[in-house]
Amino acid sequence: MVKKLTRTGNSLALVIDKPLLETLGIDENTELEISTNGDLLVVTPV
């Protein structure tokens, strides 16, 4: 899946599609840990 960032105010946002959210069991109330692993962005539910 290839995505582009979306401007939200002065920030950029990565929009995650509903099917992927459902697969991962993530919703708007899920806390996420964001880290990097070399050249990768890693987003993990807490």
Largest sheet: 2 strands, antiparallel
Strand order of the largest sheet: 1-2
Q: What is the CATH third-level topology name?
A: Pemi-like Protein 1, Chain: D
Number of helices: 1
Mean pLDDT: 95
Number of strands: 4
Q: Helix-strand pattern, N to C?
A: EEHEE
What does this structure look like?
The chain has 46 residues and is of the alpha+beta class. It has one domain: Pemi-like Protein 1, Chain: D. 15% of the residues lie in helices and 39% in strands. It has one helix at 18-24, and strands spanning 6-8, 11-13, 32-37, 40-45. Strands 1-2 form a two-stranded antiparallel sheet. Strand 3 (32-37) and strand 4 form a beta hairpin. The longest helix is centred in the middle third of the chain and has 7 residues, at 18-24. The protein is globular. The mean pLDDT is 95.
What descriptors fit this protein?
single chain; 46 residues; alpha+beta; Pemi-like Protein 1, Chain: D; two-stranded antiparallel ribbon; two-stranded antiparallel sheet
Q: What's the topology here?
A:
Blueprint: E1 6-8, E2 11-13, H1 18-24, E3 32-37, E4 40-45
Antiparallel strand pairs: 1-2, 3-4
Brief write-up:
The chain is α+β, with helices and mostly antiparallel strands and 46 residues long.
